[in-house]
Amino acid sequence: MHQTRTNSKLLWMAAIVAALLTACGVSEQLVEDPAEALESTELRLTQDISSVTGSLAASGTSWVTHPIELSAPGHLELSLGWASAGANLNLFFYGLDGKVAASANGSTERPERLSIDVAAPGRYLVGIKCKTGASSYTLTASFAPAYVETSFAGEAAAAGPSWLTHTFDAQAGERLDVTLDWTSSSADFNVFLYAPSVSSPLAYANGTTARPEVLSVVATASGTWSVSLKCKTGASAYSLRVRRSASTGTPDAGPPPPPPFTPAYAGQPRPGTLHWGAAISGNGDPVSRHETAAGRAMGVHRTFWQWADRTSRLVDTAADDLAAERIPWVSVKTPSWAAMGNGQYDAEIDAMLRALSALGGPVWLTLHHEPEGGGGVNSPDDPAGPAGHVAMNRRVRQRLTALGVRNVALAPVLMSYTFKSASGRDPEAWFAPGIYDFIGIDHYRDSEATLLDSTWASIRGWARSKGLDLAVGEWGMRGTDAAAGQRVREWFDAAAASATDGAGARVVGLCAFDSGLNSPSGSWELAGEQRTMFRQFLLDPRAVLATP
After folding, report:
1. What number is the average pLDDT over the span 528-544?
2. Helices 482-496 and 528-538 sit at what angle, rounded to 10 degrees?
3. Which of 61, 259, 433, 471 is spaced 20 to 30 Å from 142 by Cα?
4. Both 193 and 56 in a single domain?
5. Which secondary-structure segment (H or E) carries 143?
6. Are residues 382 and 464 in the same domain?
7. Do 346 and 441 belong to one domain?
């Protein structure tokens, strides 16, 4: 991939580069013909100011020019000083047409100054004439370009690689104009802009197939910004241009920055985004399984633990996840639900919550996932049944409040089968208000069919009736071909759009069950096009990482 980067410090503060040419003497009458003058020492800038020195004499070498290359339109300041009070030097600035565009030659006062608005980039000349006497001189120049451009180019394809990211430096308050163009009329590209250290896009352009895609914002922070492009359909070479310029307010075009967002619970992502990740067989390593291949971390990592692990391996794995910017979604099997609910295990609950609180980052916590167990309405895992499971979670909520733990979000994880009439179960029996931060669901299709089925629609409607977001702790469907990959795309896209589609609760997280454990009908490990699509969506700007 070809990438051209502008030296930001040199361009923004002083963007003048000069060429060193050979010297030759001239006579006074050629002062308005810079081509006949002595071209001398290059004008090299340091930060926003550069200076060069030389010597001239009216009776000898009386005329010299210094070429300067301006990278953009902007404002140029020139100052000419000289040592001898008995000398008189004049200053000239020549336009791109070779004619004098500005001059300072009115008096013998030192220094001579010029202030010029330059309309176009190019190679200009500064001329110095020693009119009387002889003296050494210093020519000082500073330049404030009207804009600085950084350009990138490459190729992308919907079949992969479809997501590419470039970075550039910008200062708070600058206007950022981004233009993404591509060569193939059958391709469709989108562009997304990210502020430093922020995983949700500040602005994006993805509305149509028209070329180019453009957006403009005022930079909200100084540092290294990212611009990502997505090839949604087709394949094409592309060119990406980022122009930075001084700003006095909101840009004329482009989407406005999103409003401030305050999560309602730990780990809640901004609307239009979600946490995308997986449960990996045996609490396996997401780095070797997916992240190295994808080049980016998962947004959520689902793991499963016994009660004895609650302050040891569970917490250690959660710490590793947060260090990688994944949300740890931990499930832990518990002692008796009734005993947990009546306070017999408060000390152990508190020890677990304090250990998770000390991690600082967001943690999603589930106590005994899929509590419905087998058939009927009572779980075979605990005779307390649905009421006991609810009482246990209510007790944990009380302990979270009492300890002031704010970084842990509590959620049940129910089976999607519970929402089918054939189950004989009542989802209401497993819920009570005021306990949970969001609802978790495990959702599978044991066939090569979409997960966006009528059961899923019922679940979203039910969660919305509770006023809570929805996340999927385990999902799985069959197939490895292109059609299966397309079903993964539809699954992700529908979740990302769920905040505004009016069809039910917002979906804030999706975890694939990338495992063959406890799977009597066959492994659910991601393979073929499902795995390819899963990894591609790790790079999607709608798939966000954990933030404090």
Report:
1. 92
2. 30
3. 61
4. no
5. strand 134-145
6. yes
7. yes
